[in-house]
Amino acid sequence: MTLRRLFASIAVFRLLSRKTISAVMVFALLKYGLKGRYRPRPDFRHAADLKPSYDVVIIGAGGHGLATAYYLSNYHGIRSVCVIDKGYLAGGNTARNTAVIRSNYITPESVRFYKESVELYRDLSDELDYNMLFTQRGQLTLAHSDATVRTFRMRAEVGKHCGTNIELVDRKQIREIVPQLHMPEEHRSPVLAGLWHPDGATGRHDAVAWGYAARAMDKGVEVHQRTEAQCIVKEGDRAVAVETNCGTVHAGNIVQAVAGYSSVLAKMAGFRLPIRSYPLQAMVTQPLKPFLDPLVSSAGLHAYVSQTSRGELVIGGGSDPYELYSTRSTLDLKESLIGHTVELFPFLARVRLLRQWAGITDMTPDYSPIMGESPVRNYWLDAGWGTWGFKATPVSGKRMAECVANEKMPAILEPFRLARFKTFDLVNEMGATAASH
Ligand SMILES: Cc1cc2nc3c(=O)[nH]c(=O)nc-3n(C[C@H](O)[C@H](O)[C@H](O)COP(=O)(O)OP(=O)(O)OC[C@H]3O[C@@H](n4cnc5c(N)ncnc54)[C@H](O)[C@@H]3O)c2cc1C
């Protein structure tokens, strides 16, 4: 007898002895418990060999690629979609991020874009029937200088104008929001004010990608792991196929969604992107009793902290200061991040660190993504996601799908087109992105 059948039978007998359940329920359970075969509901179906062609080939099975596949198949009726990944499903930056979700940016273009994402996140668990552990616990960013307070005031005004929930708060209010925060007045970098964003949230990063993958596969989307794009085949100015280590696959449209490898893919397609790639590190401590509800981030100390539902503290900061394709973690980053975190919460000094890791982040000159058309026809870009792309997963997927299905840029993506670097229409988010992600 399998364990499953044994447990099911025990459950049935317990229920019978209590005599509290109806006969119908008992028989149904008994039937289930003694059944020889169970019909599992696998989330992920193993794809067969690559077909010779698809309507859309998406390079990169991270949150963005999978979300695009989901919206294409579920909202635009395009089901001949194949997502390829050189590694495994959601094993890139989707697996490495610190799950900060927020919309308190500086420019109206960004606020509107990320606000749509936060709104999509709110209903995502229901939409995908997959628990994302999405929790809106609020995000507090601390200002340690007058210049930062001025920028925060501007962000609060822009945010309110665009309908985002955001307030400039003083020291007294900060104490109420995070009573555990160490805020001496005599300090080398005293806390002067804060930017309180009640909509700030976290979610389970893996689940976001798994949920999109599962529901896309339900509609026939294929995900091919260990399938690396090695060359983009062109005919004239059009991209027509992707050469992979598993064979060549033709495509009506190709989307690149490869996070830290955007320049590498663009080079394969024959153009350059204004992107530099840097490692970004983060770390997690041993689990502690819950004490920290909101996400706390310091613009001056370049550190941010949140507590997961398991009790661990997730700690992150800015990118490493050198370009590199290496995901090794370093001692100097660990020292500086821990030092700054302990300045904010001195009682954490004896807490043990469990893990430290890194991902490769593609940074654009204005700290905003590059989305939509590329110089090659039928080849679409979802790139330049730097340190801030997890929060944008739903909106990027939705809008990239719209872009590819209609072969036209939706208005909300217009500000993020590649051409902005030629026309100097930058969407400068450096100040709102650096340490908070
Ligand atoms: C430490 C860290 C912390 C972060 N914290 C946050 C945060 O708190 N909030 C936030 O919003 N963002 C954060 N980010 C950024 C965020 O993780 C990324 O922007 C986001 O995950 C990008 O998603 P993606 O699907 O585009 O990329 P990925 O999840 O990286 O997926 C891209 C996939 O492309 C595949 N690929 C690459 N090259 C090829 C090829 N040639 N052929 C086939 N497949 C290929 C890769 O294997 C990978 O699986 C953080 C990033 C890091 C590294």
List keywords for this structure.
437 residues, alpha/beta, D-Amino Acid Oxidase, Chain A, domain 2, globular, binds flavin-adenine dinucleotide
Report on this structure.
The structure is a single chain. The protein folds into three domains: 32 residues; 185 residues, 3-Layer(bba) Sandwich (FAD/NAD(P)-binding domain), CATH 3.50.50; 158 residues, 2-Layer Sandwich (D-Amino Acid Oxidase, Chain A, domain 2). The chain has 13 helices and 18 strands. Strands 1, 2, 8, 9, 10, 11, 17 and 18 form an eight-stranded mixed beta sheet that branches. Strands 5-6-4-13-14-15-12-16 form an eight-stranded mixed beta sheet, with helices on both faces. Strand 1, helix 3 and strand 2 form a beta-alpha-beta unit. Helix 1 runs antiparallel to helix 2, helix 3 packs parallel to helix 8 and helix 3 crosses helix 11. The radius of gyration is 24 Å and the shape is globular. The site of flavin-adenine dinucleotide (FAD) has 40 residues, from helix 3, strand 12 and strand 16.
Q: What best-fitting shape do the alpha-carbon axes yield?
A: globular
Task: Indicate the radius of gyration in whole angstroms.
Answer: 24 Å
Oligomer: single chain
Q: Give the names of the bound compounds.
A: flavin-adenine dinucleotide
Low-confidence stretches: none
Reported for the largest beta sheet, the result is: 8 strands, mixed
Total discrete domains: 3
DSSP strand tally: 18
Helix content: 25-40%
Query: What is the fold-level CATH name, i.e. the topology of the largest domain?
Result: FAD/NAD(P)-binding domain
Average pLDDT over all residues: 93
Number of helices: 13
CATH superfamily of the largest domain: FAD/NAD(P)-binding domain
Give the end-to-end Cα distance, rounded to a whole number of Å: 51 Å
State the secondary-structure class: alpha/beta
Report the portion of residues in β strands: 15-25%
Write the CATH architecture name of the largest domain: 3-Layer(bba) Sandwich
| CATH class category label of the largest domain | Alpha Beta
